[in-house]
Design a protein that fits this description.
Layout (H helix, E strand, L loop, with lengths): L2 H12 L3 H32 L6 H31 L8 H23 L12 H14 L2 E2 L5 E5 L4 H9 L14 E5 L8 H39 L4 H6 L2 E11 L3 E6 L7 E6 L12 E5 L21 E6 L6 E6 L4 E7 L10 E10 L1 H8 L4 H8 L4 H12 L11
Antiparallel strand pairs: 1-2, 2-9, 3-4, 4-11, 5-10, 6-9, 6-11, 7-8, 7-10
Helix pairs in contact: 2-3, 2-4, 3-4, 5-7
């Protein structure tokens, strides 16, 4: 507990404010729960009453969604009500958890409101043909040219069948389901686990499970495996390179990313335990293609990252030369090795046009199961272990940069 918080609680106890705080919190909880339950009742009523082309199936869907909404809201509101009943001065420490629950309630209510207005969109799920999509993705990855300048990467133009990509675009949820206080940088992490409208959740869950985990991830891993040897040899040594290559790779860090003008990410490598990074651009037809991912050559022979978390070469005074900027084109997939050789970044200038420009992309990583990787790292020579275990904080990165180049420009505005 911070000093400020301790002082606050001492004042509360000394002046007898605990009871007043508790009662006010209880009244706030009761008011907010009543408001949420009222909104839920209204949405549930609309779900039950709204026909879908006057079909019995549509009414059944509405009834089922209404029942599910009421059940899930009851599960979420009961813990808040319980906190309200037990609130005292110490209950203030739970405010962060309460706010998180309230945010979930807001998203949940909004998700079902969207469903109530767009029951017809559920028909898009029927157009999501997993076997056909999987076959197309597998072939697209196999036919893509493996490029090595400035470092190994695949550009897969037309990753999905066009009609499937259109369904994926339609299933992107409204921005209010994204998280983040900075409007230039908001994310929706784990769409398969998030509270979303039904159609969005069905499509994105299937995309994550059936296409990413089932096809795309294993396919790109297989394409990169032969060339990964050279980079892993630099990181783990000749003795352990075959063992490192044999580690099964898992998909992780799946997220939808929303970016706006004013956002910048300096040249970097993602955390060392992520061997492969993959992006799918979610642009519509006719969107401007500027400001895609930037690929950089790093001015160091046999370049690999010097620490374990997100690594910025410029922090160590290394020059990064821009080699390629990808077109931000819908259905274009970029997958690259994150083991060294170069760096990647991105920028949406503050004056980018049109003024309402935004960039949406889906990203995931692939890396070994962490316990298995750590067991391997523990057996490496001490001089090789350092880069796998050393973590450098942002303030230290800025200090390193200033010491190396005598500059004061920030490495990144915000990014990872």
């Amino acid at each position: 507990m911070t000093l400020l918080r301790r002082l606050f609680h001492q004042v509360v106890r000394r002046f007898g404010l605990a009871v007043a705080v508790r009662d006010e919190l209880r009244r706030d909880f009761q008011r907010e729960i009543a408001q949420v339950r009222g909104e839920v009742k209204s949405v549930a009523s609309r779900l039950r009453e709204r026909p879908s082309s006057d079909s019995a199936d549509g009414r059944d869907v509405g009834e089922r969604l209404a029942h599910e909404l009421e059940t899930r809201v009851k599960v979420l509101t009961e813990p808040i009500a319980d906190i309200g009943r037990k609130a005292d001065a110490r209950g203030l420490e739970a405010q962060a958890a309460i706010v998180a629950l309230q945010e979930q309630l807001t998203r949940l209510t909004r998700a079902y409101a969207v469903d109530a207005e767009q029951l017809g969109r559920l028909a898009t799920v029927a157009r999501w043909d997993v076997p056909r999509i999987a076959s197309h993705v597998r072939r697209a990855v196999q036919e893509a040219t493996l490029q090595v300048d400035p470092f190994p990467h695949l550009i897969i133009d037309g990753l999905l069948p066009q009609d499937a990509f259109d369904v994926l675009l339609e299933a992107i949820p409204p921005e209010e389901f994204f998280e983040g206080s900075d409007p230039k940088r908001r994310d929706l992490k784990g769409p398969d686990r998030s509270i979303l409208p039904v159609a969005s959740k069905a499509i994105w869950s299937s995309f994550s499970r059936d296409i990413i985990d089932g096809v795309l991830g294993p396919a790109v891993a297989q394409r990169f495996k032969p060339i990964a040897r050279d980079f892993l040899r630099l990181s783990v040594g000749e003795q352990f390179v075959d063992e490192a290559l044999a580690l099964p790779l898992q998909t992780r860090g799946l997220r939808l990313m929303l970016r706006r003008p004013g956002w910048k990410l300096a040249p970097h490598l993602d955390p060392r335990d992520q061997f492969i990074t993959t992006l799918l651009y979610l642009a519509h037809r006719g969107d401007p293609e500027a400001y895609g991912t930037q690929l950089f050559r790093v001015d160091r022979e046999n370049f690999v990252a010097s620490w374990a978390n997100t690594y910025y070469p410029e922090a160590e005074g290394l020059r990064c030369e821009l080699v390629k900027t990808l077109p931000f084109r819908g259905n274009l997939c970029l997958s690259f090795l994150n083991l060294g050789g170069g760096a990647h970044g991105a920028e949406l200038p503050a004056d980018a046009q049109p003024a309402d420009l935004r960039r949406l992309a889906f990203q995931f990583y692939m890396g070994p199961e962490r316990d298995a990787l750590n067991a391997l790292i523990d057996r490496l020579p001490a001089e090789l272990q350092v880069a796998w275990t050393r973590r450098v904080k942002k303030g230290d990165r800025e200090r390193l940069r200033k010491e190396s180049v005598g500059g004061d420009q920030s490495l990144e505005q915000r990014g990872d």
